[in-house]
Amino acid sequence: MRTPHFLITLLLLTGCQAGYKVENGDWSLVRYNEGVGRMVTKIDGADQNSFQPIDKQYAKDNHRVYWETLVINGADPNTFVVLGSLYSKDKAKVFWREREITGADPATFQIVDGANLWSRDKKDYYFAAEPLRVMDVPSFKIINGGWAKDSKAYYATPQFAPGGKVDCDYSSMRILSEQYAVDKKRAYYGLTPIPGVDVKTFRVTGTITARDAFKKYRGEREDWLK
After folding, report:
1. In Å, how far from its chain's centre is CA 171?
2. Where do the domains of the chain lie?
3. Contact yes or no for 187/193 (Cβ under 8 A)
């Protein structure tokens, strides 16, 4: 009986050891891709003598800290710690992947939902590396993967797009999906109002599509694929 090809591939991949390794005399990051196979990327600029892996995604030397192959600018190697879910910090700053979370307080920082890029400290909430500048932190709550609210404002937190406070009518705001919302005056795709929408008949038809009685929409624009 033959072993199916996909099982052979799975066995090969699970037996591989990804992470930081010395390859051809240089510290490198080794990764595996089912389509490509073994991929080796040299850590450019690393101090070869003092470089040390922290785990499979983080490393440091005497001068810098690295997330995968990227330098975490401004991170202090002596006080740097990995928090998990792509978050880390040192004595003065907090980071998501290789980016500093501007204004985050390391002493009170917490991961709220790492899979959905939510974190907080004593004074604000953050979406990935971006501060939301929440107006009322005690009343803040997450609605779904794209929206949150407090007692004073709604906040859009879409994947792959800027997040922040939405300029909407708070009292009539209704969340329709992770991307779309409406109030009594306008429809919204994340932070962006959608021009010309008939609010009374507006409805969501797909992940990034919607329609009203007169038009179809894709994202924040009239659908060009209709």
Report:
1. 29
2. 5-131, 137-222
3. yes
E strand or H helix that includes residue 26:
strand 26-33
Q: Which residues pair with 215 in a beta bridge?
A: none
Contact between residue 66 and residue 59 where contact means Cβ atoms under 8 Å apart? yes
Closest by Cα among 95, 102, 68 to 80: 95
| Integer CA distances (angstroms), 7 to 31, 37, 40, in order | 19, 15, 24
Label residue 6 exposed, middle or buried (CB < 10 Å: 0-12, 13-18, 19+).
exposed
Residue 182 has phi, psi (to 5 degrees) of -140, 150
Q: Report pLDDT digits (tens) over 106-149.
A: 999 999 999 889 999 999 999 999 999 999 999 999 999 899 99
**Beta bridge pairs of residue 25:** none
Neighbours of 188 (CB within 10 A): 24
Question: What is the pTM assigned to this prediction?
Answer: 0.84
